[in-house]
Amino acid sequence: MANSTDSTFADRGSPSFSSGNAMGPATNGRTVVDFIPQVAGLPFPPPILRLSKAQRKTTPTGVNHGSASSGKQPSPPPAIKIFVSYPTIYKLGARKFLLDNNVSPLGCVPANIHAKKHNTSCVEDINQRVAFFNGLLPNVLTKLEKILTGSTLV
Fold it and tell me: In whole angstroms, how far apart are CA 69 and each of 4, 80, 136?
């Protein structure tokens, strides 16, 4: 069943990137993660739910967990938790990290707008917490650069 954040129905037209219209309200086109393989000359990572368990272990491109209220999974799979532990990945040999260093105003996400009472176009208390979090990030990234010596944080 479709809800305010469900990305499984085409409320903006065709689900293809080439048309400029993506499915559902989460985006109207590519996100930053979609540009990475394109710039690197790699194929787009396949959606995890289209792969068998064996294929998930052997795919050379990684997988797209894309659970943004897609209706496919209630929450990100446990495998995604490894990505929040940069020191763990560093110990495995990674030296280049792409970090999303700015969280969008989550108070403007349809699910929050519909679920919370508010007097403005967005839920401002959520946006204030996001702004606080974003304000803390520069210091955290500076500390992370010191811990992960020899790494490139982009």
Answer: 9, 16, 27
Whose CA is closest to 79, among 95, 91, 67, 97?
67
* Nearest-angstrom CA–CA distance, 114 and 126: 13
Helix, strand, or coil (residue 96): strand
The per-residue b/e assignment along 53-79, b for 16 or more CB within 10 angstroms, e otherwise, is eeebeeeeeebbbbbbbbeeeeeeeee
Residue 124's pLDDT band, with cuts at 50, 70 and 90, is very high
**pLDDT band (50, 70, 90) for residue 21:** very low
Helix ranges, the chain (H): 32-40, 53-58, 86-91, 110-115, 124-147
**Residue 25 neighbours by CB under 8 Å, 6+ apart:** 4, 5, 7, 11, 12, 110
Contact (CB, 8 A) for 64 and 46: yes
Nearest to 110 by CA among 123, 125, 95: 123
CA distance 154 to 132: 21
